[in-house]
Amino acid sequence: MMKPLKFISALFILAAIVSCQSKTKSGVPVVGFVEAFEDATISQAKTGFVDALKKNGFSEEQKNIKIEYSNAQGDIPTLTQIVNHYVSENVDLLATSTTLSSVTAVQKTTTIPIFEMVSPTPERMNVLKDGKAPVNLFGTVEDLNYIDTSFSIIPKLLKPKGAKLVIGMIYNQSEPQSADAMQRIKGLADKLNVTLIALPLNSSADAQLVTQSLLGKNIDAFFANPDNTVFAAFETIKKNCDQKNVPIFTSEAGLVQRGAVAAFGADIYQWGYQAGEQAAQYLKTHKTDGLKPEMVKIRKRVYNPEMVKKYNISIPSNFEAVK
Question: DSSP class of residue 220?
């Protein structure tokens, strides 16, 4: 049963999307943009997507495109209804940010082009059909290879308090891609001679207790797994880690802006921008020839100057400070 506030929020969202008319009489193409949850870092993908369309000549200011935006606020039934609405209105294309949005869209349409972002490969999303990605799925994706570099920077930057570095992380056991990432990191930790302590949780509401439990195991560092739950609960995680003087490392550049020490990973804005370039190509040609889910191109090594100073960590010259 929905909590009252979430129910009111869901009603508000649905009222908003139902009240808007997707297909305009003027024939202006309509983009249905779907976000699964509210997050300051994730929202940069939408900004990048819209900027890419604008650079390619499509903007609401010029009145040659209409972008309908809806956010499910973390509620799955609402997310499903948002996608169903866009599909029933037969929008020209769907733009989906984060895994849950992308998977839901794939489940609901096989004809409307989907341009995904901040999402894993079709294989990791378990949406392959006969070994192939859905024919209407495009955009920008990520696999697990970059996690090797992201995690490997921790022992290079930290000197362990004991004989062996102890790194902690939390993961959402109900999200396959989160569990996959945890298994990848576990194997990597063994190769790096690092002790990994990973604790499961089911939602961001569990983050405080699980993080505190993890910090009680004398970890040297916290690794912020590329996980929707971690994004949503990051401020809670950071507050608890700061109180115990435990630095946070991650694979997401956006989380460094929010207080992690350093990262090697995708720039979320550029992730959305890359997907937007594909969408613009489709809008120009009305064809999907040559388009497919492609790997995110821009990854950065970044650090947070304030956190580096707090933990007295020396950063290599190939890392750039976040603004």
Answer: S
Q: Which amino acid is at 23?
A: K
Task: Tell me what pLDDT residue 161 has.
Answer: 63
Q: In the 3-class helix/strand/coil scheme, how is 183-218 assigned residue by residue?
A: HHHHHHHHHCCCEEEEEEECCHHHHHHHHHHHHCCC
Write down the pLDDT at residue 13: 52
Which stretches of the chain drop beneath a pLDDT of 50? 1-5, 7-9, 11-12, 15-25
Q: How far apart are CA 262 and CA 92, in angstroms?
A: 39
For residue 186 the two structure tokens come to 């576990």
Report DSSP letters for 106-173, one per residue: HHH-SSS-EEEEEEE-TTTTT--BTTB--TTEEEEEE-SHHHHHHHHHHHHH---SSSS-EEEEEEET
Q: How far apart are the first and last CA of the chain?
A: 42
Contact by Cβ (8 Å): 138, 115: yes
Instruction: Say which DSSP state 75 is in.
Output: -
